[in-house]
Each structure stands twice: as structure tokens, then as C-alpha cells.
Design a protein that fits this description.
By secondary structure, the chain is α+β, with helices and mostly antiparallel strands. It has three domains: 7-48 and 148-216 and 303-359, FAD/NAD(P)-binding domain (3-Layer(bba) Sandwich); 90-140, no CATH class; 220-297, 2-Layer Sandwich (Alpha-Beta Plaits). 30% of the residues lie in helices and 28% in strands. The chain has nine helices and 20 strands. The strands form four sheets. The chain has an eight-stranded mixed beta sheet, sandwiched between helices. The chain has a six-stranded mixed beta sheet with strand order 9-2-1-13-20-19. A hairpin with a 2-residue loop joins strand 11 (180-186) and strand 12 (189-192). It binds flavin-adenine dinucleotide (FAD). The site of flavin-adenine dinucleotide has 38 residues, from helix 1, strand 2, strand 14, strand 18 and helix 8.
Length: 361
């Protein structure tokens, strides 16, 4: 299992950096994880954290997401009790009428369990819904988690395997030697390593630009409201027009309006209160629901909407990992990145997602 004393520095303690650090440490590498702020302090902490593979994804991206789902089962066992996924499935009636049948047929052909349920079946699954739709698409194998708790579980797992975690340590530049990244310039001084992983979310583009690489990245804002803990009201991720919601294991209900991004609301608190009112009218038994906080995060989205993962063209010693759906993908990307960095392997599933596609125009 030991990796001959290789030392890897990971930049970013969001869920991707935490997962990569955990998997590298599990393989026996020496790992240092740096973050300028608290763990899960950016996109990860503001994420809805729905774990899914379905809906409008081309086959290679669907396949990668499926591995993400499967790898969560492994991680749950490895981190015994510290990583908790709610595997309730997803109920979706935020779809155009004419896209439902083709979507279900396509996913059935891929072996993904999507079913169309009628009102009675929907109510049997979610009896608290006050206005269940006439039909919804149910994806049985999906889940959700608390992204901050999951990141903390991965960091604790990495630390238990010997990783060093430095919080409050900003990275400003890379150390280069003959086309190889050999370390970092940080607030704590120069740090050298055999490999550097860049998992800095939306800040990755600016850092990669310092290496002459233009990573086209959209940072799409998303607002969520988090309630105070409630008794169990919801078992599944709900996607309905203008309201998606889930209940975390700690009882908090988390909700937003859209998965697609949009303008930053002028008054986030007012938007949060509006969402709380919508949840109350959508769920019986939620009269006592109170807003605890609102989060506003930036989704790190490479320009073509797909992950950017792997080396940068023309450069050794650096591994990039930037993507939306980083919650779904974190266990798969963590394991694959460790294999590629430590074994020099090229995981075929990652071939469509290499950063080099941007250099090729
Ligand atoms: C509203 C919203 C809803 C979402 N819903 C889902 C969903 O349902 N399912 C899903 O799979 N995904 C979802 N996502 C996307 C998902 O949350 C992200 O893809 C994922 O969290 C990205 O993780 P990350 O570790 O790459 O980035 P981040 O969590 O942003 O972490 C990057 C870290 O790098 C650190 N950093 C940056 N620059 C430096 C520097 N110079 N020096 C040191 N540290 C630095 C930051 O402090 C930060 O902690 C959602 C995102 C948002 C915002």
C-alpha cells in the first residue's frame, strides 16, 4: 500500500480536496492539505448536495456519476458511521411533459432505475406533501448528505492516515523547475512536493492562469435556505417547479429554487424567508419551521459544464480537479486521482474530462 515516500500537497479543503487527500493518504502517500479558509467554506458548504446520475447528461458523464454513487457505498463502509448518506432516492416533477418518457427510456437502457409514479404512489413515499403532482419521476438509487459533515469526515479520515491539514494557509503561486511543478509559495513560506493537486474551486482558474493555462470557468451563484432541525418530514430529495428540498440527517431542511443558477438575489434573507413559506405550504406538519441561515455559493463550472480533471498540458507535477457536481463525484475523483498521481495510470473513464481539451480550443 505504501507509495515509496511520495509527498503530495493538495490545495483546497472543499469536498474534492478532502476526498483526494483522504484517498492519497489511504494509499500511503505523505499528504499536506492547505486551505486559506475553513474546510468546506466555499462551494461545498453552500451546496445542496444531492447525489445523482440522472437527467440530461451525456453517457460518459452519466457513467462517471454512476461510479460516484457506487463509491459512496464504499466510503460509507470505510468511514464507518462518520459519513452519512440518506439513500432515499429523488422525486422529480420539475420536467417538461414531453421529456419524461424519452428520459425514462434512455436511462432504463443504461440500467438506471427511473420510474414514473402516480399520485397515490408519491403520497405513499412522501405522505407530508400537501399537493402531490399527478405524476413524478422517481430515481430510487439517489441520495443526499450534509456536505460540511461529509468533508469533515473525509478530513478526519485523512488525518487518521497521517495527512497534515493546514487551515488559514493561502497559496499564491507555484514553484517550477524545468516544466515541473515542484511546490508552492504559501502564506507559510515555500513548500516543496513531488506532486501538487489544485482543487481550489472557483479560485482554480486564477491559480492556473499563473501557470499560463486558461481554464474557462463559470461561477454560477446559488442560494439555499437552511431551517432549524425538525422531526422527520421528508425522506427523499424533492425537485418540484420553483422548489427543491431535502432533509438532512440532523433534521435541517435545505431548499432552493433552481438548479440552474441565476442572478444573485438583492436580499438573500428575504429570499430565504420566502423559501421557508413555500416549504410550509408544501409540507404538512411543518408549521413550526424556522429559518436558521441562508447560504450563497458559487458553483465552479468549467465552460462546457463537464469536470476538468487531470494534468495540465505541457506540465508535470500538477493535477487539476475542478467541477460542478463535485459532491456526487468526490469519492470517484478522489480514488481515481490517487491512482493517476501515485501509479501513473490513466483512468479511461476520465478521458473525456481532461483539462487539455480547453487548450485544444
Ligand atoms: C448552490 C449550490 C448547489 C449545488 N448542488 C449540488 C448538488 O446537488 N450535487 C452536487 O453534486 N453538486 C452540487 N453543487 C456543486 C458542488 O457543491 C461543487 O462542485 C463542490 O462543492 C466543489 O467542491 P470543491 O472542493 O472543488 O470546491 P470548494 O468547496 O469551493 O473548495 C475549494 C477550496 O479551495 C480553497 N482555496 C481557494 N483558493 C485558495 C488559495 N489560493 N489558497 C488556499 N486555499 C484556497 C477555498 O478556500 C475552498 O475551501 C452545488 C453547488 C452550489 C453552490
Amino acid at each position: 500500500m505504501s507509495q515509496g515516500g511520495q509527498h503530495v500537497i493538495v490545495v483546497g479543503a472543499g469536498i474534492l480536496g478532502a476526498s483526494i487527500a483522504y484517498h492519497l493518504a489511504w494509499r500511503g502517500a505523505g499528504v499536506t492539505l492547505l486551505d486559506r479558509g475553513p474546510p468546506a467554506g466555499e462551494a461545498t458548504g453552500a451546496s445542496f448536495a444531492w447525489i445523482n446520475a440522472s437527467f440530461r447528461n451525456p453517457r460518459p458523464y452519466y457513467d462517471l456519476r454512476m461510479v460516484g454513487l457506487q463509491e459512496y457505498r464504499r466510503l460509507e463502509a470505510e468511514l464507518a458511521g462518520r459519513l452519512v448518506v440518506t439513500w432515499g432516492g429523488g422525486l422529480n416533477w420539475d420536467l417538461e411533459e414531453d421529456e419524461i418518457a424519452p428520459l425514462v427510456r434512455q436511462h432504463a437502457g443504461w440500467g438506471y432505475d427511473l420510474r414514473i409514479l402516480g399520485r397515490e404512489e408519491i403520497l405513499a413515499l412522501e405522505p407530508r406533501l400537501t399537493a402531490p403532482p399527478a405524476r413524478a419521476v422517481f430515481s430510487a438509487c439517489e441520495g443526499a448528505l450534509d456536505p460540511v459533515a461529509a468533508t469533515e469526515a473525509l478530513l478526519a479520515g485523512a488525518e487518521a492516515l497521517g495527512a497534515e491539514i493546514k487551515i488559514g494557509c493561502e497559496v499564491s503561486d507555484f514553484l517550477l523547475n524545468q516544466g515541473r511543478v515542484v511546490g508552492l509559495q504559501t502564506a507559510a513560506g515555500k513548500l516543496e512536493a513531488d506532486h501538487v493537486v489544485l482543487a481550489a474551486g472557483v479560485a482554480s482558474a486564477g491559480l492556473a492562469a499563473g501557470l499560463g493555462f486558461d481554464l474557462p470557468l463559470r461561477s454560477s451563484p446559488g442560494l439555499l435556505v437552511h431551517s432549524r432541525p425538525m422531526p422527520p418530514l421528508l425522506g427523499r430529495v424533492i425537485e418540484s417547479p420553483g422548489l427543491h428540498m431535502k432533509q438532512d440527517p440532523d433534521g435541517r431542511i435545505v431548499a432552493g429554487t433552481s438548479f440552474g443558477g441565476g442572478p444573485v438575489p438583492n436580499d438573500p434573507e428575504a429570499e430565504g424567508r420566502r423559501l421557508i413559506a413555500r416549504i410550509k405550504s408544501a409540507l404538512s406538519g411543518s408549521d413550526g419551521l424556522e429559518m436558521e441561515r441562508v447560504t450563497l455559493g458559487l458553483r465552479p463550472i468549467p465552460a462546457d459544464g463537464r469536470p476538468a480533471v487531470g494534468p495540465l498540458p505541457g506540465l508535470t507535477g500538477l493535477y487539476l480537479a475542478v467541477m460542478h457536481s463535485g459532491i456526487t463525484l468526490a469519492p470517484a475523483i478522489g480514488r481515481f486521482a490517487a491512482m493517476e498521481i501515485l501509479d501513473g495510470a490513466e483512468v479511461e473513464l476520465l478521458a473525456p474530462f481532461r483539462p487539455a481539451r480547453f487548450a485544444a480550443g
